[in-house]
Amino acid sequence: MKVLIVDDDPNTVQMIEDSIPWEEYGISEIFAAYHGQMAMEIIGKEEPDIVISDIEMPQMDGMELLEAMEETLPTMPEIILLTCHESFQFAQKAMQYGVSAYLLKPFRKEELTAVLTTSVVKCRRKMEGQRMKEKLQSSKRQLDRNQDYLMQNFLRGLFYRDITGTREELEKVVKTRGISFALDERYYLCLVGFNQTEMERRLLTDQEMHFILKNVASEVMYDQIDMKMVMDFVRGPYYFLMLPVSENFCTRTGLEERGERLIQAIGRYLHVKLSCVMSLPCCPENFADCFWKIMEQFKQLGTVRASVQWEDAKQTEELFESPFSAEDIREKIRQRKKVELIISVKNILEEIEKEGRLDGTIMHMIHQDIMQIFYSYLNESGIQAYRMFQDSVSRTLSNRAEYSKVDMIKYINYLFDRTMEKMDELQKENSLIGTVRKYIDKHYSSNIGRDEIAAAVCIAPSYLSKQFREETGQSLREYINSKRIDAAKQLMSTTKLNLTDIALQVGFENIPYFSTVFKKYCGVSPSEWKEKEG
Question: Taking residues 70-82, what's their average pLDDT?
Answer without folding.
Answer: 88
